[in-house]
Amino acid sequence: MSRDRVSLEICEACAEAVRLADVDVVAAYPITPQTHIAEVLSEMAADGKMEAEYVNVESEHSAMSVCIGASAAGARTFTATSAQGLALMSEMLYIASGLRLPIVMALVTRTLSAPLSIWGDHSDAMSVRDCGWITLFAENGQEVFDFTLQGFRIAEDERVWFPFMVCLDGFHLSHVIEPVELIEEEEAREFLPTYKPKYRLHPDQPVSMGCFAMPDYFSEIKKRQDEELKASYDVIIEVWREWESRFGRSYSPIVAHRTEDAEVVVLIAGGYAGTARLAVDEMREKGLKVGLASLKLWRPFPLEDIRKTLGHARLVVVVDRALSVGGAGGPIAGEVRSAFFHEEKSPVVASFVAGISGRDVLRSDFEAMVRKAFEYLDKGDLPYYEMFGVRE
Amino acid sequence: MDEERARLLRGFSPRRLPKEEYFSPGHRACQGCGPAIAIRHLLKALGPRTVVANATGCAEIISSPYPQTAWRVPWIHSAFENAAATAAGIEAAYKALMRKGRIKKEKINVVSLAGDGGTADIGMQALSGALERGHDCIFVCYDNEAYMNTGIQRSGLTPYGAATTTSPAGRVFKGQRTWKKDMPAIAAAHHIPYVATACISHLKDFYRKVLKAAEIEGPAYLHILAPCPTGWRCPPEMAVEIGRMAVECGIFPLYEVEHGVKRLTVKVRERKPVRDYIRAQGRFRHLTDEDIEFIQKRVDEEYERLLGEAEEA
3.90.79.10, 3.40.50.970, 3.30.470.20, 1.10.1200.10: which CATH number matches B3-312? Predict the structure, then answer.
């Protein structure tokens, strides 16, 4: 099945997916580098191309609060933000998940202040990793488009009922124009039928949402939330299979490249995986047995996929675009290490923090990190983590 | 307004109030809880085609211990500072869903319900945003003049001189050192179609205002004085009476601002001394005659100003 590809800025591709999803309510507050998503959706609403209510909220906290009210009332709901905006709404992210509302959000990832920086990294996404949202990292514009549409379908599934966040790198993805294969409105409707919530705030069937829980109920509710978020994994896979049969593009929690016989595997999430893929090919040409694992699914954490993809390697080089200040490693590296802690055979996991606040990570940088990790390994003094490419 | 509710206002009598209880008995409010009385009547006035977005606070905590609920209308609580934004989301959802034919077209009252802190302190930004955007909601502040469910801490609406746990009466400070924030005026400054003050002591006025707020298209703000015997340090059976005293001494005048036109809705012919109101409550017991005189003077000034504005209109 071949389709026309159109050149779109990736923010536009995201907005186009939202339009195709026939959303009912969009509430967003502009923040760099998310701005273009808010602008394009406003335009669509102004031109009548999208029948949604566009709510010009006065803050991100209210953006998520409006989404919560709207989703609870049975509307298909979308928002987008970045960095400080995410931090401001983070209180509401936990609540959206606890209330089990299928809100979809695009997080255009950006550095958290201070110092103030509008440039991209994953410190914002990592700051809310425990908030109970299904979280995916996109590597390119096509994935942003696909994941956004898939997000509504996954989130609204009765077996799921969780909010869904697609992370796209600020600037390195958000502001880049790429060829994207779109789908027709009719195809979108078939893939994503009208949202029919089982419960909604409506006088026909009064329900109370958001009751407080005393300690004798709280733990049980949280356990169920945790178990059901993990169980959403199967639905995500199921939706990806359907997507492949409909539109020909396949997805998996980790997309592996030349890992089968790899002695070392580089693992990274987001757009920089594209550069890493080229770097891996170059290193292969030089005779280094290197592979790449591009992490798509961050929550629920794909433990088994991690073990399967990385288990046979001698060394895993995790490149985190976020720093856990004063911690024991990059946030993704920490979880990869945990995944292998009880395994009989485990690769050594090297943790590099690179590409923070939009700093480029070049092909040569990936090679340098791989070589450095091997050196540390040979000398037997691998640090818990290292900030790569920082001036002394 | 349906016929039953319109009839309510003709020959108003407590006996003719709707029998249905939408805020069910059995909730966990303190004895004599003013906010519980306010919510009960608010919902009786609005009827069953109503949905409530409730801020964290007394109203929420007394009514919704999982797995129980006192709410017989659809109700949501999500956080403290965002009742107005949550209500705005519900309103936007109904608008979109009715336009698309996904739910029946009808008038549903969307109520944002928050205490004085959830309205005038932490909830101010979300409220201001929602008022400015013009959502067709009723934004209700039940004002019990402090953070009561956490143990009586002062808010921006705690009156001058009142002792709370964070504005205690000490050797240096005499309780709350600031004057009550003029929240209705702030709401009115958004030039929304309807702003009104109400009190649980004046039910006819209360019902009329709630019904008007529901009928008017666009945002309506209702500021309801809801005495809290626990926090105000008075006997539970005095809650309504204390409210009446607040109105009659002029410290909490009942008025409305409809499309910019200000009207006193309960005219007090001879205002009673503020002293009676103050001396009836333990939270003011440390105040000297001099302090009360100071309060009386300011209440007089403000009341005169209100009369002036109302007359101009």
Answer: 3.40.50.970
